[in-house]
Amino acid sequence: MKGDPKIIDTLNALLADELSAINQYIVHAEMAADWGYQKLHNHFEKRAIDEMKHAEKLIGRILFLEGQPIVSKLTDIHIGAEVPQQLEYDHDAEEKTIKNYNAAIKQAGELNDFATREILEQILNDEDKHIDDIEALQDQISHITLPLFLNAQL
Question: Where is Fe cation 1 annotated to bind (predicted)?
Fold first, then answer.
């Protein structure tokens, strides 16, 4: 089915966000593992896997719409030197991504592409959970202090 070029461009922009998030989260995961914070490693790694699934859905939809997935473009990736900075960068990335998904959902509706809109809404729900999880970790740090938080991540 030939899709609207505008929605294909939007899907490719979202794909760039997802591919960038995978890289950012996997680096943060490996840094946490290197520091001995296995629970935090698992948290970051799970989020990276979720982003891979999102990328897979977007690629599938682009192909269905007879578009060409662009996997060579990434958005800015920010690697934190310490855990609070990592969480801040991850929060910023998720916030931007959520904004982009909301705009894409609106565009898909305006173009009467309700199947694409439904896929985007499913991914948006995951992204909302991601930002909620990040905020929960940030709240834990603010409530129990960073050293106690990191001790709990061993």
Answer: 18, 51, 54, 127
> Is 52 annotated for ligand binding?
yes
C-alpha to C-alpha distance for 54 and 14, rounded to whole angstroms: 9
Report pTM: 0.95
Q: Is 127 annotated as a binding residue?
A: yes
CATH code at 127?
1.20.1260.10
91 is in an annotated binding site: no
Does 18 appear as a known binding residue?
yes
51 annotated to bind ligand: yes
54 is in an annotated binding site: yes
What does the pLDDT look like over 4-32, one tens digit per residue? Answer: 999 999 999 999 999 999 999 999 999 99
DSSP labels, 52-100? HHHHHHHHHHHHHTT-----S--------SSHHHHHHHHHHHHHHHHHH
